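This protein record is not my work; I was only asked to verify it. Take the sequence as given and treat only the C-alpha cells as open to question. I have pasted the whole thing underneath without changing anything:
***
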Amino acid sequence: MNFDPVRAGAAEPKGETMLRWTLIFIVVALVSGVLGFTDIAGAAAGIARILFFLFLILVVLSLVMGRRSRV
C-alpha cells in the first residue's frame, strides 16, 4: 500500500502551492485573452506575475538561509 501525504490531508509546501496558483492564473489569462476578455486577461496576468516573483524571492531566501552554517 502506497502512502500519499496529499491524499492523507497533509499540507503542501508553500512554494508548490504558489507556483500552482501562478500557473492557474497564466492559463486563465491566456484563455480569456484568446476569447477577447482583455480586462480579465490583464488582471490574471498581473496576479500571475506577482505570484511568480514572490515565488522566486522565497526560493532565493530559502537557498540563502539553507546555506548558512549552524556553528
Remarks:
- The CA atoms of residues 14 and 55 lie 9 Å apart.
- Helices lie at 14-35, 38-67.
